[in-house]
Design brief:
This protein is an alpha+beta fold and about 180 residues long. The protein contains 6 helices and 5 strands.
Amino acid sequence: MAGVPDEFQRLWTPHRMVYIEHGQQPAKDDCPFCIAPSMDDEHALIVARGTHAFVLLNLFPYNSGHLLVCPYRHVATYDLATPEEVAEIGSLTQTAMRVIRSVSGNDGFNLGMNQGVIAGAGIAAHLHQHIVPRWAQDANFLPIIAKTKALPQLLGDVRRSIADAWPAAGSTPETN
């Protein structure tokens, strides 16, 4: 009944409709990291494309600016990646860290790859590295008590700021 309080907490996220309306929820058997490069960058949340790998925002971020670096090739684990894929994943990760730091002023990063379902990979069939920016004051009890993560920016705005700050192909990114 409308207006009668219940035990449910509600977090309204109307901005998520764009992902439903633009087909960003792939079929259960489709790989979102294989589909993303065929889409335009804005709708796929891609911030940069390399020769062997690309960088996109995590659709379910831990923090604003949470990026993923994925090879184009559908390969499950790091040991199956080619030397060229490994090198470009590393180079894109370094650039991503510099860009995130320049646009968000974060204090640190968590980098990681979960290899296999048992290790916590949400999409275990396609290799991807997480780059999670961290701030000295970004921890609170909301995720623990309410199982809710508050994100201060919309994904489209974050994608735009990172993509706009990404160095042009062939240029040398600043080292900090």
